[in-house]
Design brief:
- By secondary structure, the chain is mostly helical.
- The protein has 2 domains: 205 residues, HUPs (Rossmann fold); 91 residues, Tyrosyl-Transfer RNA Synthetase, CATH 1.10.240.
- It contains 13 helices and 5 strands.
- Helix 3 crosses helix 12, helix 4 packs across helix 7 and helix 9 packs antiparallel against helix 12.
- Bound molecules: tryptophanyl-5'AMP.
- Tryptophanyl-5'AMP binds next to strand 1, helix 1 and helix 7.
């Protein structure tokens, strides 16, 4: 049991979980769970950096737990928990704040993007968000953090903070590595394919929610923005192909086939046929997830049991790390 390495990862319950979240992160968690001890959190504390409706936040937190399980994450083998149930995250984040520089935080792309988008609410939490994320990861001694491309910069800063702390106090934290999927590390918006697909996009046509009706999913894919060239070919650095590149990536991620093989199937065919097939492949991929999700929706007591046991196990590990840190910095424990 001890020989397995450790994974930590998380999603914010701050919107409709998208195909991007699934293909960029959760799908990999499912694939990796056999070989690692895994902790998967629903990071409600992170969500507060943007204003949330409390009733909706509670609902989305439970929805996300259902999605984790419905996607195939084993809730008994792995630790599934809600971040606010484990106080050590906020406690360690405070300490790590004191070992993190304003300069490095102000270089974070996500901070720059989000503070532009929410100019009326550039709160301190939004600024120190990566420190809470570092605390999440470091508390569990994670070796690997499977995420989409947009989170890699936060993993880098986590490593920097951990190395800085270790250089002062000795070998306290394990230095984690980020891990991205081969296909799907950055799924793009369906309406503006140069932007990433985001669960907080104001335009619901831009993203596919795992919980969208199947006919809506198909409609969104069929009306995805592409180009007028009429050639189904993946061209990485050609911005005019961003829409087609994205659909090929999605098709590859849900079918497990190589992009080149998919593109060659569509030589001489039109975008209409291709989009219809992508829509079908996505719907068929999501169908069993939705079935399981609907079943879980009937059993609230089961979900409460999962997150309660998850919190117990997570607290046990996190408290040990926190105690070690408290001792190192000179707190009386
Ligand atoms: P969040 O909630 O924005 O996204 C959850 C996961 O989905 C990935 N992702 C994408 N992947 C591919 N294409 C996209 N368009 C796309 N959009 C999102 C993200 O990279 C992420 O892996 N800060 C994190 C949550 C977090 C966390 C952590 C993650 C908090 N603590 C510790 C790992 C470890 C976030 O906001 O993810």
């Amino acid at each position: 049991m001890e020989d397995k390495k450790i994974i930590f990862s998380a999603v914010q319950p701050s919107g409709n979980i998208t195909l991007g979240n699934y293909l960029g992160a959760i799908k990999n968690w499912v694939d990796l769970q056999a070989d690692y001890h895994c902790c998967y959190s629903i990071v409600d504390e992170h969500s507060l950096t943007i204003r949330q409706d409390p009733v909706l936040l509670r609902k989305r937190t439970l929805d996300l737990l259902k999605i984790y399980i419905a996607c195939g994450i084993d809730p008994v083998e792995n630790i599934l928990f809600i971040q606010s149930h484990v106080p050590a995250h906020a406690q360690l984040a405070w300490i790590l704040n004191c070992y993190t520089y304003m300069g490095e935080l102000s270089r974070m792309t996500q901070f720059k993007d989000k503070s532009q988008k929410h100019a009326d609410n550039i709160n301190a939490g939004l600024f120190t968000y990566p420190v809470l994320m570092a605390a999440d990861i470091l508390l569990y001694g994670a070796d690997l953090v499977p995420v989409g491309k947009d989170q890699m910069q936060h993993i880098e800063i986590t490593r920097d903070i951990a190395l800085r702390f270790n250089s002062i106090y000795g070998d306290v934290f394990k230095i984690p590595e980020g891990f991205m999927p081969k296909a799907g590390a950055k799924i793009m918006s369906l309406t503006e394919p140069l932007k990433k697909m985001s669960k907080s996009d104001e335009n619901p046509k831009a993203y596919i929610s795992i919980l969208d009706d199947f006919n809506i999913i198909a409609k969104k894919i069929k009306s995805a923005i592409t180009d007028s060239e009429g050639v189904i070919e993946y061209r990485e650095n050609d911005e005019t192909k961003a829409g087609i590149n994205n659909l090929l990536t999605i098709m590859s991620a849900v079918t497990g086939r190589r992009i080149e093989d998919i593109a060659s199937d569509y030589q001489g065919k039109g975008y209409g046929d291709f989009k219809a097939d992508v829509a079908e492949a996505v719907v068929e991929h999501i169908r069993p997830i939705r079935q399981k999700y609907d079943e879980l929706s009937q059993d609230k007591a089961y979900l409460v049991d999962i997150y309660t046991r998850g919190a117990e196990r997570a607290n046990h590990i996190a408290d040990k790390t926190l105690k070690k840190v408290y001792k190192k910095v000179g707190f009386i424990v």
